[in-house]
């Protein structure tokens, strides 16, 4: 059987079985012939497959909930993109920075893929987002050279003698030939390219319009919900990276106080909106900070006290309660 396997170059198993059967009677021939590859080194090599180890625990960079945004940052380049400069076209690259905890993105335009341009992109990023604690990337030559500057804690840009301090940044490189380890930013590269394609299908950008398109793509990506979008209530908004980068504007604007005599609707989640009671405010209770926290409402069944969050003031043209 081993001879037939070699004669047919370890292929055409049914043909080899047919030839053996024509000359010999062997009980359970097919089962025995299937055992030949287990003793053949060539078959072992040809059939060898990788066995990925069990997935590792979630890294600390994904769980830095008490850290500021971009404390743990992944970086990657994509491009080149052709831009119109006068009558000629030039190449531009995009440095994509992503917060591994909040899943937010930040874009910088690189004019070349070399080390000096990568250094300046990192400096521009740090000027806006702060100094990261750890940076993750692939093994690109520009990233390796930039990591060397970070390790030396000193960077010089061209001949301008500009020095920038890197305070304790740790740069971590993925294993060579393992792009799946950078899935956190590779997925954003694909998303960004799709947005740019929809903004300008023919990719006819100049430097100004490319930056504008990247800022729009950055806003779109950072506006995606990170939590479940509930359709049951109008008051629960899904959390997005922009909420954590730009801050929530819910408490920044003061609302007009509820005045005595105002006609209001009492919000009741247990009833349909058309059954909510409409009544007049008879008294308000002001807190120490000068805001109305509770109101008193007179109804046909007596006097009710409700929090200001459950009161909707109607615009019925009343002035001074008259």
Strand-helix topology:
Layout: H1 2-7, H2 13-23, H3 29-34, H4 41-46, E1 72-85, E2 88-99, E3 105-110, H5 115-129, E4 134-137, H6 141-151, E5 155-156, E6 163-164, E7 170-173, H7 183-199, H8 207-222, H9 241-246, E8 263-266, E9 278-286, E10 292-299, E11 302-307, E12 311-313
Parallel strand pairs: 1-4, 4-7
Antiparallel strand pairs: 1-2, 2-3, 5-6, 8-9, 8-12, 9-10, 10-11
| Low-pLDDT regions | 154-164
CATH class of the largest domain: Alpha Beta
Name the CATH superfamily assignment of the largest domain: Ribonuclease H-like superfamily/Ribonuclease H
Distance between the termini: 106 Å
Q: Any idea of the CATH topology of the largest domain?
A: Nucleotidyltransferase, domain 5
Name the helicity range. 25-40%
Radius of gyration computed on alpha carbons: 33 Å
Number of strands: 12
> Strand arrangement, largest sheet?
3-2-1-4-7
The overall pLDDT average reads 82
- Bin the strand percentage: 15-25%
**Broad structural category:** alpha+beta
Please trace the helix and strand order, writing H or E for each element: HHHHEEEHEHEEEHHHEEEEE
- Morphology: extended
Number of DSSP helical runs? 9
Number of domains: 3
| CATH architecture call of the largest domain | 2-Layer Sandwich
Characteristics of this structure?
322 residues, 3 domains, 5-stranded mixed β-sheet, alpha+beta, Nucleotidyltransferase, domain 5, SH3 type barrels
Structure notes:
- The chain is α+β, with helices and mostly antiparallel strands.
- It has 3 domains: 2-46, no CATH class; 60-222, Nucleotidyltransferase, domain 5, CATH 3.30.420; 263-313, SH3 type barrels.
- Helices cover 29% and strands 23% of the residues.
- The protein has helices at residues 2-7, 13-23, 29-34, 41-46, 115-129, 141-151, 183-199, 207-222, 241-246; strands spanning 72-85, 88-99, 105-110, 134-137, 155-156, 163-164, 170-173, 263-266, 278-286, 292-299, 302-307, 311-313.
- It is extended and about 105 Å long.
- The termini are far apart.
- The relative contact order is 0.08.
